[in-house]
Amino acid sequence: MNSSTGWERLEPKLEAMARRVRSLEWDPSRRNSFVPYEIETDSAYVRADDGERYLMMSGYSYLGLLGDPRVTEAAKAALDKYGTGNQGVRALAGTIPLHHELEAEIAQVMQREAALVFGSGYAVNTGVVGGMVGPGDTLLIDKYVHASLVDGCKLSGATVTRWRHNDPEHLERRLQMSSPDGMRVVIIDSVYSMDGDIAPLPEIREVCDRYGALIMSDEAHALGVIGKTGRGIEEHFGSFDLVDLKVGTLSKGIPSMGGWVVASKKLLLYLRYHARPFLFSASLGPAQTGAALAALRIMQQEPERVEHIQRESARLRSILVGAGINVGDSETAVIPIICGSDENAYDYATACKKAGIVGLPVVSPAVPTGLARLRIAITARHTTADIDFAAEAFLTAAKQTNLVAA
Ligand SMILES: Cc1ncc(COP(=O)(O)O)c(C=O)c1O
């Protein structure tokens, strides 16, 4: 069998990718993607594979619970009790009592009737969107929603229309143009992962109510981060009936794996049989389930973690803005430091690393061309002294790379 033609057709794509990575990471000091970091379980520091210790400023573990002994012990207890995996998918032999306990806890935290836990946040978003709507329905997505939601839209077969980021007036124009015949579902991220801004939910709700449209929000970067006690966008805006369908992950503020959807029992019963990643993929492992449950409980017992994240994020943001650094519309723990070109972002990340901190660049196509950035995330592990150190390093590096005047 001669497969050379197939490989020859792939070759230009492989070469283009290799060239792109080389153009940004041409020197070991500029290497940013796929670097293995060893975490320290009692600090925000990591050790990279160059042997050096850095303050991690781009990690997702918002609540600072990664490596927390209580969470690790809960994972170990689940391992001891249930072993390293489950016996298949949830619908068959793959459900363990711990799944039900975790689902009850998530439903309680999110103030909904029930929850369903999936193997990842990605699986939730593709599964829920793809399973709930179909041809004849319309999905109206904020231009910046996460890729997993975009993929769910593609899988659904519904008509998909995008509206301008965080712009309820533009959403209304799109709703006016959409077909009133099928279901209309507006999809937002509660907190946008690349910009750290919050969806203007009350205004979006008002618009949606005029057209009978449902709202689905992704709480990935909101759980543990916004709202007085970390319960996300509804708590942030002071009312728990603003969203029709909430989804989220257990891999960010909650230091585990997995994803969840909360809704009425009736809708979740339907999704059990129609969300394909739920039906056709193995259930969440016992250790991850146990860890997620413990972390959710700690979040509720220790609201000071959320308060710390919010306070220190605001403090770092105000220092950066005061020094003339562009942080876009950030208002949460995600703070983008906007650098311009992809090369500028790499230059800046390299200078930050020399100053002792890891701030990871996000370049096109993940963000629009010309808006490459370091995506900074503040966690409850960052002490006030860490934030002071990081601020100093960000400013020194900004001067060295002409991001601000020296
Ligand atoms: C907004 C958002 N939604 C969903 C996901 C997917 O979650 P997971 O990593 O648990 O699959 C992510 C992860 O990066 C995300 O940022």
UniProtKB/TrEMBL annotation:
Cofactor: pyridoxal 5'-phosphate
GO terms, molecular function: 8-amino-7-oxononanoate synthase activity; pyridoxal phosphate binding
Gene3D superfamilies attached to this UniProt entry: Aspartate Aminotransferase, domain 1, Type I PLP-dependent aspartate aminotransferase-like (Major domain)
Keywords, alphabetical: Transferase
Residue ranges occupied by any Aminotransferase class I/classII large domain in the UniProt entry: 61-394
Reactions this protein catalyses: 6-carboxyhexanoyl-[ACP] + L-alanine + H(+) = (8S)-8-amino-7-oxononanoate + holo-[ACP] + CO2
Enzyme nomenclature, EC number: 2.3.1.47
Stretches that traverse the bilayer: none
Alphabetized InterPro entries for the sequence: Aminotransferase_I/II_large (IPR004839), AON_synthase_class-II (IPR050087), PyrdxlP-dep_Trfase (IPR015424), PyrdxlP-dep_Trfase_major (IPR015421), PyrdxlP-dep_Trfase_small (IPR015422)
Protein's recorded name: 8-amino-7-oxononanoate synthase
Species: Actinocrispum wychmicini
